Amino acid sequence: MSVDPRLLEILVCPRCKGELEYREQESTLVCHACSLRYPIRDDIPVMLIDEATPL
Predict the structure, then answer these.
(1) Neighbour count for residue 5 (Cβ, 10 Å)
(2) Domain residues for 38?
């Protein structure tokens, strides 16, 4: 399974409110503006800044 495409359309970076790139192979959402990578666990995006890792 993967993340619901409708969910991906409305998700934004919690820090800058910018667009996110979905990287299915890595199970992450990437914000290029903030250079942060948000994990996806069990098909659920973890949109907490404290959980994000730098690119």
Answers:
(1) 8
(2) 5-54
Distances (CA, A) of 2 to 24, 33, 35, 48, 54: 7, 24, 23, 19, 23
Domains in the chain: how many in total?
1
User: 2-54: per-residue pLDDT in tens?
Assistant: 888 999 999 999 999 999 999 999 999 999 999 999 999 998 999 999 999 99
Residue 39, classified by CB atoms within 10 Å of its CB into exposed (0-12), middle (13-18) or buried (19+), is middle
Domain CATH for 32: 2.20.25.10
